UniProtKB/TrEMBL annotation:
Biological processes per GO annotation: cell surface receptor signaling pathway via JAK-STAT; defense response to virus; innate immune response; positive regulation of immune response
UniProt-listed InterPro entries: IFN-lambda_sf, INF_lambda
A Pfam family that the UniProt record links to this protein: IL28A
Xref: Gene3D superfamilies: Interferon lambda
One term of GO molecular function: cytokine activity
CC per GO annotation: extracellular space
Domain of life: Eukaryota
Protein name: IFNL3 protein
Assigned keywords, A-Z: Antiviral defense, Cytokine, Secreted, Signal
Family: Belongs to the lambda interferon family.
Cleavable signal peptide: 1-19
Taxonomic lineage of the native organism: Eukaryota, Metazoa, Chordata, Craniata, Vertebrata
Subcellular locations according to the entry: Secreted
Length: 186
């Protein structure tokens, strides 16, 4: 028969009951995007490598694009923090959707690391919106941009959307940094 002393037995029982009383998800209530204020250099290098490889592919194809999604008359810093988070979430949604499209084997391999990173960021942002601003309504500026994005998804070619998303990834990452700062950013 297994013999446990009183102290280890008490720790085992209390540990189990406290774990049930405080589920791990309940302890994770706050939203912290601070880890995205300064992006890890190897992630930036992976994104840069992917962007450069994509630019080389683009030279060989004809991708005309009228969607100027990332050319805005306002700056991200002009938005409220919840609007910034919504903006980056929408930008990342577009980027990750485009990065999962079928591609040439070399490019498919190059984009795996950025895709995994951007997918994780998007999930973190969704968690923040769910905990901090679940019923947030976007400002007029952001609402207009979100409508422009929806229109582009319906009217532009997949190649155009892919080019827009990939070529502007560093703008998206800067918008992410701005959202993570939670204060005025440039």
């Amino acid at each position: 028969m297994l013999r446990l002393g009183f102290t280890p037995l008490l720790a085992l029982v209390l540990g189990g009951s406290l774990g049930a009383a405080f589920p791990q998800n309940a302890l994770k209530k706050s939203c912290s995007l601070s880890k995205y204020q300064f992006l890890v250099p190897h992630e930036l290098k992976a994104v840069q490598k992917m962007k450069e490889q994509f630019e080389g592919i683009m030279l060989l194809s004809d991708r005309k694009c009228n969607a100027r999604l990332f050319h805005r008359k306002w700056k991200t810093s002009e938005l409220s923090v919840p609007d910034r988070v919504m903006l980056v979430e929408a930008e990342l949604d577009l980027a990750t959707t485009m990065l999962v499209l079928p591609a040439a084997p070399g490019f498919a391999e190059t984009r795996q690391r950025p895709l995994a990173f951007l997918t994780q960021v998007r999930e973190d942002l969704r968690g923040c919106m769910a905990t901090e601003a679940p019923s947030h309504q976007p400002s007029g500026k952001l609402r207009h941009w979100l409508q422009k994005l929806q229109t582009a998804k319906k009217t532009e070619t997949t190649g155009c959307l892919e080019a827009s998303a990939i070529l502007h990834l560093f703008q998206v990452l800067n918008d992410l940094r701005c959202a993570a700062l939670r204060e005025q950013c440039t």
